[in-house]
Structures are given as C-alpha cells and as structure tokens.
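hey so i finally got around to running both of the ones u sent me last week. sorry it took forever, my laptop kept dying halfway thru and i had to restart like 3 times lol. anyway pasting them below in the order u listed, first the sequence line then the structure token line for each. didnt double check formatting much so if smth looks off just lmk and ill redo it

first one:
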Amino acid sequence: MGQIAFGGAMSHVLDPEYYQAACGDLGRQKVTEAMEAIARMGDRLVERKPDALIVVADDHMNAFSFNC
C-alpha cells in the first residue's frame, strides 16, 4: 500500500512583470515572495524522493493569456 509523502498547492499566475504593471511594487514583491516559497516547497518534495506524482491542474493557459 502506498502512502502520501507530500502535498502541495500553488498559484498558477506568477508573472512578476504582470503584477508590477497591475499592482505596482507591492504586487511584484508578493509574487516574488510566493515564487521563493514555491521553490522551498519543491525542495521539500525532492527531499521526500517520491516514487510517483499525481498532479491536478487546469489548462486554461492553453486557451487564454494574461492579456484577455
């Protein structure tokens, strides 16, 4: 029987340039901090050395862009 070794979730819209334009310096800072936290989350995932991954994601970027 397998066991869950790691669980994580993250935002899917992390473009610092977009948030700089839309929200100014504070928006860019928040996105940069979120990206750093996601990198740390990735490090924790790698440390767990999982045998398999189950990823649940949407594909809206295939149909839409930041300019919609």
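and the second one:
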Amino acid sequence: MPALDEQRRIADFLDDRVARIEQIIAARQQQVELAELGRLANLDAVVRGSAPTQRISRVVALGAVGVVVNPSTYFEDEGVPFVHGYNVRDGYLDLTEVKHMSQTSSNALSRSQLRAGDVLVVRAGFPGRAAVVPPELAGGNCASVLLLRPGDDLQPEWLAAFFNSPLGKQDVDSVQYGAAQGVINLSDVMSFELPLPPLDDQRKALAAYERTDNAWRQGQACAERQISVLQEYKQSLITAAVTGEFDVTSAAPIPE
C-alpha cells in the first residue's frame, strides 16, 4: 500500500483528471441531446407542412397486426426473418438479434407476411416507432407490431416519417393505454390524420430531409464515440493511478 502522502497525491490527481473528463463527457452528451432535438424539429417541419390530411385507413391497402399469441412457437434456428417490435427503431430495422421462422409458417400466416415497402409500427413497449421493410425481408413475417401497406398515393418512407415525427408521436400518445407499458391498437392508428402532399412532393421532401438527417445522425454518432472513448480512458486512468502503473508525480494538471 502506498504511503499516506502518496495516497493523497493519487486522490488529488484523480479528482482533477476525472472531474475534467466528466465535464467533457457531459458536454458531449449535451451535443447528442441537441442533435436529437434538431433531428426531430427537422422531421416535424417536413411532415407537418401545409398539405391536406387523409385518414390513414384511406391511404393504406392493408392494415394488420403481427403474430400476437405465442409467437415463440414459430421460432426456428433457420428460415425467414421473424421481425419483432424490439427490431423496429426510429426509421430503421435493427436485425442484429432477429428471430426466424420457417417459410411454410410464414406463408400460412399470410396476413402478417412481409413485403418490401411495408411499414412496421411498434404496438407495445415503445409504441409508434416505425420503419420500412427492405427488399431482403420480403417473405418474412412479424410479431407484435402493426403492419401497414401503403397504397399507390403514399410513399412508405413518408408514412414511417409521420409516425417518428413529433406530430405522429403526439397522436400515438393520445391513444396509447396500459400502466406497465404503452400499447396502441390498429383501429386507433387507422383513424390518424396523415398530412398527404402529392407523391412527387413526398419524394422531394424526403430526399431533402434525409440529407439533413444524415448530418444530424453523423454528429450524434461522433459525439457518442467520443463519450465511449472518454469513459474508457477515465477507467484506465483510475486503474493505472491506483495500481502504480502511472506516476502521478510526473503528471501536470490539465490546462483550464
């Protein structure tokens, strides 16, 4: 064990360094939060616009609910993707931990079978999160989500953007129920009023939004990587100072 004065030097050194590192981490976390607010404001401006609205039930060709009763009975080690609510994020599908079912089972559950361009909306837990089904998931199936199949006058990405926007979240909040976790019903979602500009205007607005959104997301990702590196550095610094791997007497204070 180090002598008492050495212990004090180590403690003073760590207090100084850790406090400064945590200040930087807090600043980066604020950057992440501000970027998210910027993303949402941008999305809200795009979706609201000044277009007339249409009830969702009038602009989708299909509204269905994924497998709800005992979806685990369909699990297979291999087969087609069986997408769950936890795979659906704001605007994309996270398939790092996707389940599978047999193609035969998916074909039998035809109403919830996926097609490219379908929009999946989380039903419970984080209700309202939405993402578009990519071509590689066609033929798969889904569980515990709402499946909306846009009609000819509706871009799938526009519908997903609506649900992920503050306007869509406001509608979801108004109809969700459940104390332990929020839940939404298909009938309520089908009654939502969706701002619906002409198809070409939807495409143009989405293209402009995606360019800006990519910049916001890149900024968020950069700040999050810095936070991770700083947290690792803080822990390694503490370990090195306490174990004597780093000589604190030779270290100068971090400049103000």
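quick thing i noticed on the 2nd:
The chain has two domains: 4-47+212-250, 53-196.
anyway thats it, ttyl
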